[in-house]
Known about the structure:
78% of the residues lie in helices and 0% in strands. By secondary structure, the chain is mostly helical. The protein has one domain.
Amino acid sequence: MPSSLIYLAVMLAGILLWFVAMKRPVYEAVLLSFLLLLTITGNWGNVWAYIDKALSTSLLYSMVAFVAMSIILTKTKIIDSCIAVILSLIGRVTGGAGYTAVVASAFMGALSGSGPGNVMATGTLTIPAMKRSGFPAHLAANIESNASYMGNMIPPSSNIVAAMGAFTALYPASNMTTGQFWIVLWGIALWFVIQRLFMVWAFCKYYKVKPMRKEDLPDLRTTLRDGWQGLLLPVIILLPFLLDYLFKDNFFTARLGAEGAKYMSSSLLLFIGGLSSLYACGIAKDRSKVKLPALAKMFGDGVKTIAPAIGVCIFGYMIGALFADLNVAEDMGAIITGWNFGKLGTVVAICAITCFMGMVIPGSSLVVIFGPVFITTLATVGCDPLLVAAMLPCICGVMCGITPPLGLGMYAGMTIAESDFDKTFKNNLWWVFAQFALEVIVLMGWLPILGL
């Protein structure tokens, strides 16, 4: 057996034993796997180099900024007012509550960066609205959970930062800017939003769903008055990256030089997270929540949210650095390429692998640890490496949230909808299959993607 497979088996065994069997936090499982790998490979002498490389990854600090932003947006209830606006606009059409769940949950999931947390936040509004308009409870639960987990693949979710890090590590000489990477991510996400909207339409036909009753709809004038400021958040977040993408060569590079434009592009990740947080504090209705003592307590309470996510990334980057020394990515790429599956077969195989591993390993861990392997392997068979990197949050981060037994989004949706497990699970398989099929289609390059 190739040594790279042994190393991967050790890592997976450590994570499965500690995270799944012992029910310990996943960051502990990833750290344990790292320690086991150091022992087996005899690389303890390089441990400080691996730690230094992990902590010197600038994208790690961008991730902290966006996780902090998501805490502010969630705690200040800005998200709730935005959902009410969307519901008042879309809820009046047949199946409108379902379409609202897709649009609102995808958008809010990107801002909050938490799949199950977003289900609990937006689902308390959208799931009852869907049930009142005729959606079966199990369908309402799955629409919300599958829409919410799209937040893991839509900027500014912190999950995409790890994917960008994997690409820039493999292609340091690339002219790809942060703005271009984000545009590609939005281009990909658009197809998955359309796919979920189409599935809602099909299920509405099957179950003969009706429009929401007028008395159940929020008043448009009132919701706009209370929530219009929150709707400006996408503009604040999107505009700098759009400008960076459109005017990099003929404006920023001409004035700042190639190096200056490059560093300006990379600094956007930190700058936008902070700016959005300040804006959220400025428009918060409850001013008591954004005073300094309240913010300090908010972040203090949020350490339980921030620390595990950052811990997984740090330890994952350490494993990635160790794997680089062991040439695991090259070995795995050679093994998969040696299967001679061709481009389509390799794409299907990688999507199946991420689907399987996503059943037990969180998506962020998959992106950090296996991202370089997937990019290298798929690029070898002719896939666009930038497209593959932009798809990592999708094939890893989304699948892990909708596929049992780790599919926390489904369980969160079931709790709110009070739906039957068997019916919810069987209906969820349709969503998993549709997700898998569209992943293959996008990676094959059969759809036009904005930014490529």
